[in-house]
Amino acid sequence: MVPVDSSTALVTDEAGRKLGAVEVLRDLSEVRALEEQLERSRTLAALGEMAANVAHEVRNPLGAIGGYLELLERDMEEADPKRKLVRKMAEGLARLDRIVTNLLTYTRPLTPDLREADLREVAEEALRFFQLGCDEKVSKKVKFSLEFSGTVRAYVDTELFQQVLFNLFSNALQAMPEGGELKVRGYKDGGWACLEVSDSGTGMTEEVKRRAFDPFFTTKAKGVGLGLALVQKMVHLHGGEVSVESEPGKGSKFLVRIPTLR
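^ that's the sequence the OP posted. Answer follows.
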């Protein structure tokens, strides 16, 4: 059903005699969509503020717990079977700390330190560090590749831009639980420096694709829905844009475009 607004006016001749009526119908679909977007933005802003407050309060206790876990592991014998449990607790704590860090990063203002860089070098380093941090079982099932067409240079904050790539790599891996291929491709397109990150994973429905960059939206059981929202925020800080192409069962391709050096 299409929402419409209607208005009716009489049509008369010069003598004032009624000749008929004119009814004008106006399509309100775009207006309704803008109203829904505004309401969603207000809700997300409130959620973001609440999340930032919670993250700030949680961070200090997390640091203390981490310190106690280190002391506990240090006082255990190397062969003590309980060391494995302590390490599992430390891994869970590290995951909580990453979530808190992401919440604070998303909600606080960021000022990028933009410097001239070769995007191939930035992407190679990001991919290398990401592979080092991957679980060995996962890395054996996934083929990684990187390809650049010529030299691609731009002004970037290397730390923030590598975080963009880490998040895209992580998203790709999560979409390929049975393994597959993760491709990174770089090239210039007019005045844009372009980076594509594609996977051969499960793909997305139109609804998921439409909301992919919404903060706190996730289809993953263990996700909080900030990875791609952070990607979008950081790309915008570089004066760029990010988009996704995807179909169910055919994988996904994320395209990051930032202004290139002239």
